[in-house]
Amino acid sequence: MLIVLSPAKSLDYQTPVKLKKHTLPEFVPEAAELIASLKTLSPPQLAKLMGLSDPLAALNVGRFRDWSSKFTAANSKQALFAFNGDVYDGLDASTLNAKALDFAQDHVRILSGLYGVLKPFDLMQPYRLEMGTAFKNGRGKNLYEFWGERITKALKKILASQKNPFLLNLASEEYFKVLQAADFDCPIVSPVFKDAKAGQYKIISFYAKRARGLMTRFVVDKRITDAADLREFNLAGYRYNAAASKPLQPVFYRAEKN
Questions:
Q1: Which phi and psi angles does 122 have, rounded to 5°?
Q2: What is the pLDDT of residues 138-147, one digit of tens each?
Q3: Which of 54, 167, 71 has the alpha carbon at shortest distance from 122?
């Protein structure tokens, strides 16, 4: 079993991390190649490309300028603890025990516009580069063309070594599109999370993002490797709904709060 997650736009490089273990990203040369191109952009050009405010554009121009192919404790942080958004609020990595963290290192991968794919303990320098950014580069007109089959091949290699391989897709559509789904030789399970609102169950973006983090938390806490066990997911009031589900698309409902 392998989980894929999206990264978050917001980052936290202020909160100290107790975990001393760390690894390095697999695609550092590719990241360096992208950085070399990104460094040629001025703040106004970056603001236009990414739809950023002037302060955010200036911040990220500085990040690209300072980026180094050498990752240290001074310039980096483990990816699982560096991202700070709805998914990572649900995951709440700082409260995972050592065994759950080690399981996550083996079974969770974070897709990234700059780094391609990150293991939880991979040191990561701060950046902003969404996978859907139409950034022309030496390999194509956008990041999907830049990464090509690289990320898919990296994930397939991991899955090939597992006894019960399946890909648990907890990433957004923007990020999952970087994978060649048809090339995987195992099931791809894509859960759906719906919340009750005005008498109907709907996908509400904020809650759905957090639910992806909650399910990741559930999986690593329970060390789940069998897709059928995902039906037991019950955090924050979600419950499996058999009638609304499909074999590779389990649906989880949560009743409206009074």
A1: -65, 130
A2: 999 999 999 9
A3: 71
